[in-house]
Amino acid sequence: MNDLARTRERRESRNRWLLLTPALVILIFAASGPLLITLVYSFLTAGDYGGIKWDFSTDAWFNVFFQRDIFDDTLSFADAHLSIFWRSVKLSLLTTLGAIVLGFPTAYFIATRPKHHRDFWMLLIMIPFWTNLLIRTFAVMELIRNEGTLNTLLMAISVIDAPLQILFSETAIIIGMLYVYLPLMVLPLYASMERLDFSLIEAGYDLYASRLAVLRRIILPLVKPGLIAGSILVFVPSLGAYVTPRVMGGGKQLMLGNLIELQFGQGRNWPLGAALSITLLAIVMVALLFYVRVAGRERGGHG
Amino acid sequence: MAKTTGFDIKRQYGFTTIAMICFVSLYLPVILLVVYSFNAGSSVAIWEGFSLQWYRSAWANDQVQEATIRSLIIAFWAALISTSVAVLAALATTRVRRFRGYSAVFAAINQPLMVPEIVTAVALLIFFAGIKVQTGYTGLGYLVVAHSAFCIPFAYLPIRARLQGMDLTLEQAAADLYASSFQVFRRITLPQLWPGILAGAMLAFVISLDDVVITEFVKSAGQDTLPTYMLGQLRRVVTPEVNAISTVLLALSVTMVIAFFFVTRIRK
User: Fold this and answer.
1) Tell me, what DSSP letter sits at residue B235?
2) Chain A residues with CB inside 8 Å of B258's CB?
3) Domain B62-266: which topology?
């Protein structure tokens, strides 16, 4: 390499980092940096009235999973935390499952429309996705609450005598999350299905396969990467959901996001809140790494 | 052979029905929410005639007015800042050979998309609480910075997509004609890039306007935005006033999203 090329390369590199500096400064100041501080806080002692004391302690991490009995000092699992962990995982899995049941046929429907119609159907999926999550949650809440449209209607036609109590239950949280995160399932599924080679399906029918066999043995294996991607895209935000469980669960059915918030409000245990946040982040990162691997494989795979 | 007349190989039993149920249930709750914002009565389930009273009462509510103005100010600054820095970042990371640190930069830019919002919110609460104690400053600046940060990936992605689709020949021709690199950027790159910048800015504006979680944790007392104000109203009796506020916000974001759709389709 001659000198001229080397000088030019050095100048290019300098310009590049100059261009990147403003974005990186903001991101380090208000995204990455605070995360590191949160990690540090999870190893400190809780202050008496919120905040922290600068004493190293692993109590917060210990308290994520265990609790010490104040009378006889025996150790046991932190039941309250574990049951909230379990509820978060359970509700997120059920939401993902529901999203597959509803999203798979929807994506398939869109992918089998004539080409010039598909954009329109996808726009119909995209619009709700880009509109306010809180408002969409409100909309579902107004529909299913005791004085809501659903109950009013059912009582007016005398199907039920008393309103169905759906709101403030785990079912309500699932309905809410399913409603707000469904588009995240349809998007990647549609992307896989759009490239589906229908001559393979035709071959299946030529060999006397039933519709179910075609779905199970040909379509499903081909769109599996999209299915996995969609599942992770729904599971991850469900696990960290805060608004939907707060609105639909009414503060009774806590999920991880609400448990974290409690530590900064009434709980006044910032280190525990920090440790819980890092735990949630770690679970999400594992799911995302899995997603990246699947997405990478899909790009290099069939097609 | 197996293909008898009218046999549709693309068909799966029940799929169209489920798809239709999906589309209807995606829109029905929101449509009902909008309809009842015009209700003359105070119920969000029993229709008592058309009226604009809830819009009037929402607008007469000082808290709503203040929250609206605050939301718009924050969204304006967040969109402006995030789009400006995203343009620069996109120029540095698109149409170049992979450089050392590329993956780290890409991960940093997209971090707000990957980290759960509640985690970012808590991290910012902790960090800003420290700064508030040190400096005593409790203004809107924290919200603007926080919003700018999580809007960056949303502004960056459409700009980057636009840049990737642009051809290099015009810029090379300009450079061949002794244009300086700044001249090339201003006269050739920027005019072609505009739709991407506009799309990015609109997306950032909508994302900032809609944010609840991070705002809820970062805001100081009396700094409600429209979404956090609405969340705070939950404990009270729900009246169509909330529907009226929602409808206005909805109209704003749907307009922006549809405009975004068309702007990204402008010919290169």
Assistant:
1) G
2) 127
3) MetI-like fold (1.10.3720)
Contact of B172 with B139, CB cutoff 8 Å = no
Q: Do B84 and A22 touch (CB under 8 A)?
A: yes
Distances (CA, A) of A227 to A186, A231, A233, B11: 9, 6, 10, 19
- Residues of chain B contacting A13 with CB distance shorter than 8 Å: 99
CA distance A161 to A159: 7
Q: Does residue A22 sit at the B interface (CB-CB below 8 Å)?
A: yes
Using CA atoms, how far residue B88 sits from B97, B150, B162, B268, in Å, is 17, 16, 14, 20
Contacting residues of A for B242, CB less than 8 Å apart:
138
Spell out the domain ranges in chain B: 62-266
Size of interface A-B (CB pairs under 8 A): 259
Residue of B18, B84, B121 with shortest CB distance to A105: B18
- Is the CB of A182 inside 8 Å of chain B's CB atoms? yes
B47 — phi, psi (to 5°)?
A: -80, 125
Closest CA to B249 of B23, B28, B41, B30: B30
If residue B129 lies in a helix (H) or strand (E), which one and from where to where?
Answer: helix B117-135
Q: What is the pTM of this model?
A: 0.90
Q: How many CB atoms lie within 10 A of CB A224?
A: 13
- CA A234, A236, A241: angle at the middle one, nearest 5? 95
What ipTM did this prediction achieve? 0.89
Residue among A289, A292, A34, A32 at smallest CA distance from B109: A32
- A11 CB-contact burial (10 Å; exposed 0-12 / middle 13-18 / buried 19+): exposed
Q: Measure CB to CB from residue B19 to each of A30, A106, A127 and give the nearest one.
A: A106
Q: What is the pLDDT of residues A163-174, one digit of tens each?
A: 888 889 999 999
Please give the pLDDT value at position B167: 77
Partners of A130 on chain B (C-beta within 8 Å) are 206, 253, 257, 260
Flag if B33 and A135 touch (Cβ within 8 Å): yes
Query: Which of helix, strand or coil describes residue B39?
Result: strand
Q: For A179, what's the count of Cα atoms within 13 Å in the CB-facing half-sphere? A: 29
Find, among A259, A162, A16, A56, the residue nearest to B100 by Cα: A16
- Which residue is closest to A292 within chain B, CA to CA? B114
Distance CA A227, CA A232 (A): 9
Q: How many residues does chain A have?
A: 303
Q: What are the structure tokens assigned to A283, written together?
A: 């679970």
Compare CB distances from A152 to B46, B120, B217 and report the shortest one's residue. B46
Q: Is the pLDDT of residue A303 over 70?
A: no
Q: With contacts defined as CB-CB under 8 Å, which chain A residues touch B235?
A: none
pLDDT tens per residue, range B86-122: 999 999 998 777 788 888 998 899 999 889 999 999 9
Dump pLDDT digits (tens) for A25-39: 999 999 999 999 999
Question: Is there a contact between B210 and A132 (Cβ–Cβ < 8 Å)?
Answer: yes
Q: Do B45 and A149 touch (CB under 8 A)?
A: yes
